[in-house]
Amino acid sequence: MSPYLAAEDLSMFGTDPWWLVVVKAVFCFAFLMVTVLFSIVWERKVVAWMQLRIGPNRHGPWGMLQSLADGIKLMLKEDVIVKRADKAVYVLAPVVAAIPAFMAIAVIPFGPAGNEVSIFGHRTAMQLTDLPIAMLFILAVASVGIYGIVLAGWSSGSTYPLLGGLRSCAQMISYEIAMGAAFASVFLYSGSMSTSEIVAQQNDRWYIVLLPVSFILYIVTMVGETNRAPFDMPESEGDLVGGFNTEYSSIKFAMFMLAEYVNMVTVSAVATTLFLGGWRAPWPISTFWEGANHGWWPLLWFVVKVQLLLFFFIWLRGTLPRVRYDQLMKLGWKVLIPVSLVWLMLVATVRALRNENYGFSDIALYIGGGVLVLLLLSFLVDMYRDKGGKGDRDAEEPAEDRAAFDPMAGGFPVPPMPGQEVPPVPRRRSRRERELIVSGGPDTHSDGPAGGSTDGKEASDG
What GO molecular function annotations does the UniProt record carry, in alphabetical order (predicted)? Predict the structure, then answer.
């Protein structure tokens, strides 16, 4: 379907009365808040189960009201503003981080775009609104949220929050590039940036089957985008105490925590919309039940898919250790971005060949041959480059220059750079050798003349 037809299909949006728009907006807000409250308890329960612990079990039945109790506790705690902070920016930063997290849900379809459900006698779509460039709107509001984190770290007037804010900024920029390339593959296949049209194009086959590499890329980038483990470097306690929100307390700290979990729900909803068929029922159910995609049932399938992706977030946090920051940036710039660009070129080539009515076997032959040629060329280049580079380094740098490295030159220990070698650590004396030195007995090879040491007794006799 062409983009022009997709634009015509958006005519059903914008015709609802004002009170119905308010009802839909309140529903979207309530959906995010309830999902966040449930996700926090669910995360603590699942991680406790993985680690053979009990988890929350006091507040409410099965501890289900633990999130509500934590929220009340945070609101009642003392609100402290540090003396050196820029007060206006310090107060505004949590708001800037939280509000964009709620905005992306406005264009997510919970059901079919037609007038499928009745709310107080009015037939309406199960979506607040839609745009011809809805996915660009989601990318835009997701990018605004980073300003809240950076401003929080800068306005605190402290070193560690500033480092946490800078880490988060670098991380989100790195992973948003690969995320945008993964989105572009979906745009090429669907022919639209409208979320409702993208779901409509997955009627026969979900894009997780057609674009598996794009799905994997987006799954990795959405974990990095939300600063979740194992990519939670902006909040790594061992390095930065607490990250960009170290100097925050009470409701301001709660807003940062709320923004993180709302972003988790939002990226899960986007992944469901782009790759998992959106509100459509899974394959076994949709085949033998015609009414599975009508009425209020699509809302159930959408919520189940979102919860499964949230469980994936929790599973990663309870399974994988935190990566180093250099590994994080290397994965973003040297792996995800090149892979996403190459995959985007392959998808564009396949779509162009399909538009020219080439068969599947011809497309597979052309694509496979091109990939093999590229792999062979890259193998040859790497092989000759490694041989030449190693010889040049050996010829240019003597061994004593490569070994000349003082890890304490700057006043604190630093790891060696590639090509540098740490000098050997001197051997620690054994207890027997230390006793001989104290008692004036024969010393080892380094503490006296070759004939032995008589410094103890002769000095005292003299």
Answer: NADH dehydrogenase (quinone) (non-electrogenic) activity
Angle at the Cα of 45 (from 42 to 50), degrees rounded to 5? 120
Burial 151-171 (b: 16+ CB within 10 A, else e): bbbbbbebebbbbbbbbbbbb
Domain extent, residue 194, equals 3-358
The pLDDT of residue 399: 52
Which backbone phi and psi does 158 adopt, to 5 degrees? -130, 155
- Is residue 369 a part of any domain in this protein? no
Reading the block at residue 241, the tokens are 């105490």
Is residue 98 in a domain?
Answer: yes
pLDDT in tens, 10-39: 777 878 889 999 999 999 999 999 999 999
What is the per-residue pLDDT across 258-275, written as a single tens digit (0 to 9) for each?
Answer: 998 999 999 999 999 999
The model's pTM is 0.78
Task: Find out whether the peptide bond into 230 is cis, omega within 30 degrees of 0.
Answer: yes
Q: Are 312 and 299 in contact (CB under 8 A)?
A: no
Q: Which residues contact 134 (CB under 8 A, 6 or more apart)?
A: 107, 193, 194, 195, 196
Contacts with 125 (C-beta within 8 Å, 6 or more apart), sequence order? 12, 13, 109, 111, 112, 113, 114, 115, 116, 117, 196
